[in-house]
Amino acid sequence: MEAILNNAKSWLTDFFDSKTKEEIKTLIEQNTEELKDRFYKDLEFGTGGMRGIMGAGTNRINKYTLGKSTQGLSNFLKKAYPNTDLKVVIAYDCRHNSDTLARTVAEVFSANGIQVYLFSELRTTPELSFAVRYLNCHAGIVLTASHNPPEYNGYKVYWTDGGQIVPPQDGKIIAEINSLAFEDIKFEAKEELIKLIGKEVDEAFINACVENGNFNAKEKDNYKVVFTSLHGTSITAVPEVLKRAGYKNVTIIEEQAKPDGNFPTVKSPNPEEPEALSIAIKKAEEIGADIVIGTDPDCDRLGVAVRNLEGKMEILNGNQSMIMMTKFLLDQRKAKGINGNEFVASTIVSTPMMDSLAKAYGVECKTALTGFKWIAKMIKDFPEQPFIGGGEESFGFMVGDFVRDKDAVTSTLLACEIGANAKANGSSFYKDLIECYVDYGFYKEKLISLTKKGMQGAEEIKQMMIDFKENPVESIDGSKIITVEDYNTATSKNVASGKITPLDIPKSNVLIYIAEDGTKMAARPSGTEPKIKFYFSINAPLEKAADFKKVDAQLDAKIDRILNELKID
After folding, report:
1. Which keywords fit this entry according to its UniProt record (predicted)?
2. Where in 312-361 does DSSP place strands (E)?
3. Does 204-213+222-440 match 41-197 at the fold level?
4. Contacts of range 260-264, beta carbons closer than 8 Å, 24 or more positions apart
5. Domain 41-197: top CATH class
6. Which of 146, 229, 234, 428 is catalytic?
């Protein structure tokens, strides 16, 4: 506690503003537990960058922690690109303080002699990724906490290729940041180096979304779309993209259309949570819509609901959406001619069905660690292989490579194209999904996410991972474990022979068990939230579409048995 108290007292010097100092003084005098949580560690870069609760302290998002990160990034950019006129672009979302924090970040860059393009108003994360290359910038920043609760904010760093930072840049940037004291931050802005941007980049981005996501589906006028931005940034792009692609029958949920960092109409602005789409689904049932789409605050994730076999709206999981989007893109590519060197992409905790799908079309499925930064890295590392599309289970997808992060703007259009095309052919989005199960195997996934907050929670998560490694699971639902993949050591173990082989993938704190019957279980602490996540994938053959309900029920029962057996809930 003494170290924590000394750390807190270091924020009482004249370098820090009076409001910050008063906040720290109050905590020292009145709230020891809160003080501990704010100063027991520094915020770290995870799979999505730097994200945390706003407030004073080293373990919080504030002008000083972001200023220090920006100063470190400025120092690194100068080393990476010596004797170069450096340029960065900055965007921000609807969250509290995002605009003022973005301005602070811009001022620090400018104080270091770096040209800054700052969006004049909130914009989507995919537009920021696009803008990095469009404006020929060396880096990009977006101020967002994605789908986290209102008290959170964050800081995502993008590199010259438009993708989020990956090794070796990330480690070198972190080293630069860690070498600094807060007093090293240059806050004195050079206003002549800060340029506000907006419409020109918007126009280029929207045109690119339509070009990449529009496949001229038939009878768009007969396809009814309900869209909600969940109080986030997508309202700045999605409606216009749908309009330009020819969708005239679009209903926008007005009570959720205004950007608002309080997210007043939802418990969580996360389209992975069914409640987030409840208002939109109710409207869809009222007007007989074909599809519902909702996006998170920075518009990189999308939730999709379509009519099931009973005609009721059903929310698809991220794996289902990914399979349908990938198959549709592969069909379009096949019509033009597949050369065989193309690739699609997925992640280690997403559905294995992506491999089956890719194999059927004669293309490669590259599998990355969780996070779209790794998919963006693949595009950069394999320029000779055209990238068709790819995604991950957490409701994210990327169409082509013009955006190098998950992109709910173009993916929203693509989902509508899939549904409109299916309807025009006398089918539906959901029926076409079932046909995929017939053709490539019926894969079903389940995610269990456990929240463990604070210092104690971090220790609990750490211990849970240790327990799974030291006391390995031997079977799942009666099926023997045949392979254990430990990404912390980048090794794969054949349980029967004991043979260990290296995994050609960067190290990460993920443990995956694979059973004889194809059942797969992964355990992974979140890189951006105080959570540990368990991913389950099971599968069975589906001989014909008429058997869907029966096999679906069997798979549901299997998942229930597994959860009871492993006592994870």
Report:
1. Isomerase, Magnesium, Metal-binding, Phosphoprotein
2. 313-315, 343-347
3. yes
4. 260/94, 260/231, 261/94, 261/95, 261/96, 261/98, 261/150, 261/231, 262/96, 262/150, 262/231, 263/150, 263/230, 263/231, 263/297, 264/231
5. alpha beta
6. 146
Q: Which phi and psi angles does 365 have, rounded to 5°?
A: -110, 110
Q: Where are the domains of the chain?
A: 41-197, 204-213+222-440, 442-566
Residue 438's H or E segment, with its range, is: helix 429-440
Q: Is 472 helix (H, G, I), strand (E, B) or coil?
A: coil
Beta-bridged to residue 502, according to DSSP, are: 491
Domain boundaries 204-213+222-440, corresponding CATH code: 3.40.120.10
User: Residue 351 phi/psi, 5° resolution?
Assistant: -65, 135
Contact 136, 87 (CB under 8 A): yes
**Digitized pLDDT (tens) for each residue of the chain, 569 residues in all:** 788 999 999 999 999 999 999 999 999 999 888 999 999 998 886 555 789 999 999 999 999 999 999 999 999 999 999 999 999 999 999 999 999 999 999 999 999 999 999 999 999 999 999 999 999 999 999 999 988 899 999 999 999 999 999 988 888 998 999 999 999 999 999 999 999 999 999 999 999 999 999 999 999 999 999 999 999 999 999 999 999 999 999 999 999 999 999 999 999 999 999 999 999 999 999 999 999 999 999 999 999 999 999 999 999 999 999 999 999 999 999 999 999 999 999 999 999 999 999 999 999 999 999 989 999 999 999 999 999 999 999 999 999 999 999 999 999 999 999 999 999 999 999 999 999 999 999 999 999 999 888 888 888 899 999 988 888 899 999 999 999 999 999 999 999 999 999 999 999 999 999 999 999 999 999 866 788 999 999 999 999 999 999 999 999 999 999 999 988 76
One-letter-per-residue 3-state SS of 93-119: CCCCCHHHHHHHHHHHHHHCCCEEEEE
* C-alpha dihedral (260, 264, 265, 271), degrees to nearest 10: 60
Residues 6+ apart with CB under 8 A from 546: none
Backbone angles phi, psi at 174, to 5 degrees: -60, -40
Element (H, E) at 78: helix 63-80
Which segments of 455-541 are extended strands (E)?
A: 475-476, 479-486, 491-494, 500-502, 511-515, 520-525, 531-540
Residue 424: name the closest of 210, 216, 209, 251 by CA: 216
Give how far the C-alpha of residue 235 lies from the chain's centroid of Cα atoms, to the nearest Å: 19
Q: Which residue has the tokens 């992409």?
A: 345
Cβ contact 391:398 at 8 Å: yes
What's CA 118's distance to the chain center, in Å? Answer: 23
How far, in Å, CA of 482 to CA of 225, rounded?
A: 45
394 is a catalytic site residue: no
